Hints:
2 copies of one chain form a homodimer.
Chain A: E1 11-15, E2 21-25, H1 29-39, E3 44-48, H2 56-64, E4 69-72, E5 87-90, H3 95-107, E6 112-114, E7 123-124, E8 127-131, E9 134-139, H4 145-158, H5 163-180, H6 186-202, H7 205-209, H8 213-224, H9 240-253, H10 255-275
Helix pairs in contact in A: 1-2
Amino acid sequence: MSKEDFGGGSLLIAWQLKGKNVLIIGGGEVASQRIASILVTDAHITVISPIEGLNPRTKQLIESYAHRITHYNRVFFGTADFEGMDMILTALDDVEISRAICQMSRAAKIPVNAADIPDSCDFYFGSQIRDGPLQIMISTNGNGPKMANLIRRKVEKALTGIEGEAIAKVGELRERLKVRAPGVGGAIGKRRMKWMTNLCNAWTLEDLVLLDGETMEKLLDEGWENDCVPSPATLGSRQQSSINGIFPRWGTAYAPTIGLVVGVLCATLVIISKRR
Amino acid sequence: MSKEDFGGGSLLIAWQLKGKNVLIIGGGEVASQRIASILVTDAHITVISPIEGLNPRTKQLIESYAHRITHYNRVFFGTADFEGMDMILTALDDVEISRAICQMSRAAKIPVNAADIPDSCDFYFGSQIRDGPLQIMISTNGNGPKMANLIRRKVEKALTGIEGEAIAKVGELRERLKVRAPGVGGAIGKRRMKWMTNLCNAWTLEDLVLLDGETMEKLLDEGWENDCVPSPATLGSRQQSSINGIFPRWGTAYAPTIGLVVGVLCATLVIISKRR
């Protein structure tokens, strides 16, 4: 949290839906966006919408992911459709039906989101970025989806594109460490977390991406077992990263200086050659 | 969504807790982080923890926000403590008690998060950025909180610091527009969204920040009513922004050129003065 301004916000969370059931009522453009968001989570999706209400993208997703999406070619029947559902999303043009579904969902204690009716929602969607295990969400708390998209593009530009891969490597290393030093919480949990934190502080993303199974084991042998964080160099990992790390800084910081030196040299050469 | 890799992820959402009740069981460092996250949302917080289990930060938050936090100086009693709760967060060292609380919460259909026990959680927390109405969450899907923090700092650097204010202005303008052209969804909703999108595309964040009540009304008069997006210049809004907008680009793109020109001039001057 960058500032301590408490109040007026949402709780941004990563909801877990693996093996759960999500009901989407409606089949238009918003429904296709919802399906895409839910497919990310490994939930099973049920879409209720008359076939003539499906837009091309929704139709295509239902066909391409037939093993993960069940489509009922009909309108919403009522609470009987909630049976076994863990989340309900409405994507309907009819605001009154949408509101009624929200009330029923809340009575059944099933989390619900109704497109375009923020005051009926248990939660909002936002603009999202995904790169493997890395997910980023930008929420404007209902102040404009367009602004969320603008900021998403800004954030995307700030990422190098290797963050997801680096995180995956850290995740794999952590799993290997847990095999060596098992146990949940307590002293061992704290020592593991401390060591992983020190490693992430000392190594660049580029260093982490270069880790493979063999260097991971070496890193645990030489690092974890001796309670230290070896440098990528001592570990014998390929050192492309330090080159990548230096050049961009040169580019911006020394550009005017390089220009100046080149300018002085050129002018000197020209004038000297004319004097002769 | 940058890539269509479906599966293996979470559903990142902005959970709404205004006027809701959140139970936090435990009082240590994690509890203090949870309290800070929930204070953002305008929920009422109940903390259950023996007073000797409170760390200084938790104690301080309970004292400073006494009107928003109820503290019970005791251990968790059982499901009776769930009465009226909308969300449950455990922050305990005891993994077995934490797991048991998760099972009870799930049976009561109340969303639950247990610190350090990802497989018992309905949702995960992530690294967060907040700037007024703008909230950003970075999740590594359990692959390392440290990595999430590193990426959060990267994202923070990419933001100029005026995004939150620009979003607030857009939100205010949208509210004013809704007064002029009321109605939920349908044709009017679509026209409103289209016009707001065009505006956000045409105006820079700096332009948006400069909007005040008067220029907003002028913008709606000249823009919305005529179905067009006036430029900030025609609207007579102060034009600092275009200056701010140009110079940073100059700084990076023309730095070597400027250096070169300065170098040529200096060398020429020195050599010419020596010739005399």
